[in-house]
């Protein structure tokens, strides 16, 4: 029997899952309150990673967040107006920000992405442009910090991740990326991680969906949800009422708000980031992450995209030009580019869960609802394997990718109160 699935939220996760579901013979409808890909799908930094994956909840992150309440230029910034809506989320975040849980989070992400190559090939075979750019370079001013970051990658090696093992010097790094400043002393190349142009990736995905006659309903905010006991029966938008077998909620940073319409508490809040374009330069042909500045530079054919910052400012974050200026100022110390010619500033939000891991699965309240939210800072990188897992969960009832670490029901009061 053909299964009908409605997907709410046409971003990276919703669109990729729609494609795989359609390939498995499901009748798929994607609805979005705006345009497909209008969330973070096109504006992200384009790092397609299997190695650098990490939760935001790291040791020291809570202190950093508190300090930021009074400093608008810090890379991690919490606004006071966001605090009331962050209490439960913040407690779970603080609980997750221990060394032990941070490492466990990295390993969970590495395991989720173990079949990244296979999942990318599958998307490619269905018409998605999965061509990768060059390898990722991670340069530092401070060699001790470089060593610290390098060592932090080590636990992921047990899960099939290619981790660099040795630091290389500043001159060697400048040979690879001539734009790096003379202050760079050490760093490494991450051969498992690459750039991809997210605009090309998502646009090719949308084209593939259209060619398969997947029903797409844009600019359709949900106005009513029909429920009966453990089932969601219908969804109404100004464009009509839909009925279905299963519904997938994949609304990115809008997931908490969307969840409320379905009677769900989804602890996913927007973490706003910014990017700004610079003219292309032959001196920067590799994607680079500047961990000391918490900022990145990614070369695309039409621009170098500088990006960074994590700003918590409630459900509807405001644009703050000072954040963009801070990225431009911090980058000048690391890389020689034409900063004065910057253009095309953009802001958008990452869907942030408290522990930095996505929520994927069936919340206990419903039999026919699947949640896929909270992919955070690495949702582009996690898209192919998440789509694979979600598609299997919907069609087969279970996934060959272990989703145990990603239960949507894991943020309970009992867990908060548990000591270890
Ligand atoms: C500045 C920045 C840089 C990033 N860089 C990287 C990177 O380099 N590498 C990486 O792996 N990841 C990166 N990410 C993260 C990545 O982009 C996200 O994790 C990813 O887009 C999440 O996918 P999603 O489908 O959950 O959400 P999105 O792609 O944001 O899509 C959500 C969709 O849901 C829709 N929606 C929202 N609310 C509703 C509603 N109520 N009803 C209907 N539709 C709704 C939106 O319109 C949108 O189309 C970055 C993100 C940002 C913001």
Brief characterization of the structure:
The chain is of the alpha/beta class and 420 residues long. The protein is 30% helix and 24% strand.
According to CATH, the homologous superfamily is FAD/NAD(P)-binding domain
Output the CATH class name: Alpha Beta
Total domain modules: 1
Strand content: 15-25%
The CATH topology name reads: FAD/NAD(P)-binding domain
Bound compounds, each kind once, are:
flavin-adenine dinucleotide
Shape: globular
Distance between the termini: 46 Å
Q: What is the SS-derived class?
A: alpha/beta
CATH second-level architecture: 3-Layer(bba) Sandwich
Largest sheet: 6 strands, mixed
The average pLDDT value, as a whole number, equals: 96
Radius of gyration: 21 Å
| Strand order across the largest sheet | 8-2-1-12-19-18
Total helices: the number is 12
* Topology, number of strands: 19
Low-confidence segments: none
Structure, explained:
With 420 residues, this protein is of the alpha/beta class. The protein has one domain: 3-Layer(bba) Sandwich (FAD/NAD(P)-binding domain), CATH 3.50.50.60. The chain contains twelve helices and 19 strands. A six-stranded mixed β-sheet has the order 8-2-1-12-19-18, sandwiched between helices. The longest helix is centred in the last third of the chain and has 18 residues, at 379-396. The protein is globular. The structure holds flavin-adenine dinucleotide (FAD).
Q: What's the helix and strand layout?
A:
Blueprint: E1 4-8, H1 12-23, E2 27-31, E3 47-48, H2 61-67, E4 76-78, H3 87-96, H4 99-112, H5 116-125, E5 135-140, H6 143-152, E6 168-169, H7 170-176, E7 186-195, H8 198-211, E8 215-217, E9 224-228, E10 231-237, E11 240-243, E12 246-249, H9 255-261, E13 269-278, E14 288-290, E15 295-299, E16 304-312, H10 321-332, E17 343-352, E18 359-361, E19 369-373, H11 379-396, H12 413-417
Parallel strand pairs: 1-2, 1-12, 2-8, 4-16, 12-19
Antiparallel strand pairs: 3-7, 5-7, 6-7, 9-10, 10-11, 13-16, 13-17, 14-15, 15-16, 18-19
The chain binds flavin-adenine dinucleotide.
Residues 8-14, 32-34, 38-41, 43-47, 221-222, 250-254, 257-258, 273, 275, 307, 348-351, 375-381 line the site of flavin-adenine dinucleotide.
